[in-house]
Amino acid sequence: MTHRTRRPLLTSARTRARTRAPRTDADGARARAVTGLATVAIFAVLLAGCSGAPTPAASTSGGSETSGTLRPAAPEGTLPDETQTALQQIVDQAMAEYAVPGAAVGVWIPGEGSWTSAFGLADIEGEVPVSLDMTWPLRSVTKSYTVTLILQLVDAGEISLDDTIDQYVDGITNGDSITIRQLADMSSGNADYTTTEGFGAAYSADESTIFTLDQLNGFLVDQPAQFAPGTQRIYTNANTNLLGAVVEQVTGQPFQAALDERILEPLGQNGTRYTLDATTWTEHPLGHVMLDGEQVVQNDNLSIYGPAGSMVSTLDDARVWAEALGSGLLLEPSTQAERQDGAPLDQGPPYDRYALGIGETKGWWGHNGEGLGFTAAVFHDPETGTNVAVFMNESNVVPKAHPADQTFRRIADLLADRNAE
């Protein structure tokens, strides 16, 4: 297998000025390839104790908790050698099957222990190995944070899931009938900005442009709907970015500040942040896409995703988020139950069903993400309290596959077989 780094998708001068400290690309869950004679561009469509699950803590919808007070502890000890060997084999096989250069994977089982491991290379050309303290793009896992903020505001009585988006953002087609709930569960029918001429032209004019949330949402104004609200479920970045605008309108804070105060600080997620300027994102892997048998390093313009996919995180923070998201740690129990009322997507990433900013696969709840060189999967098993996080620096696998999600599914199968013995 060969590689090259001089023809990146969504080309950026920053990917050419490489250092030994790896740097990389942007966030999304599914990417759409648009090939030109001189440049190849991908606009990501973020499709982004053993006896039982832990008891959810009190709601944090007010966002006033002391930093880190709600952070779940990792299970003590390590998993049995036999389990570790089986997990290692699953990751090795998935990386070989999908030509993944590097990965970071963690499995945390209450009452049994933990297994975390780094695999392969963060930077092929620089021969930089993946390490466990690197930060990875969350891609569409970011959506689960954004919708959690929305549900916290519902718990606080500041908004309703039945509010229409025109109460917060002007100019959206069908805005007087699209509800917050429909934006969260991907049934709004809203257009996606990644396919608009306005976004394409702005991005092509300067691929290093740092887009604001208002700009991303502005590309949606007066765009034709894909379908009538509530009649289909098609996954888009735009749905979640409109919810980001709701967060800003209701809290009176920039999205990043609301996220920090209401989620990241209470959970002590010091390695996680919402960032639009990739030049401030250091010590991370490079994202890759295989083109014509060669690994091509991807652009790192995080700002093209906004609240739909512009967050980065560490493996241990992903453990914390898997538990908080899957168990409803930050929400009222009734809100978490409502959150999990979902259905299969008509178009989108691989879930058995998708609900309010959360997906269900094989009985596990969480979120995955893909785009521009990276995939991620962060899931929680309510029955056992087990958490799994997978980060990989390869996306857009042909034939279509999601390496991190496939790896998670195989881990889930292994653990199910193990529990059945």
Automatic annotation (TrEMBL):
Biased composition annotated in UniProt, kind: Low complexity: 59-69
SUPFAM superfamilies: beta-lactamase/transpeptidase-like
Coiled coil feature spans: none
Region (Disordered): 1-28, 54-79
Pfam family, one: Beta-lactamase
Domain named Beta-lactamase-related: residues: 87-397
Protein name as annotated: Beta-lactamase family protein
InterPro entries given in the database record: AmpC-like, Beta-lactam-related, Beta-lactam/transpept-like
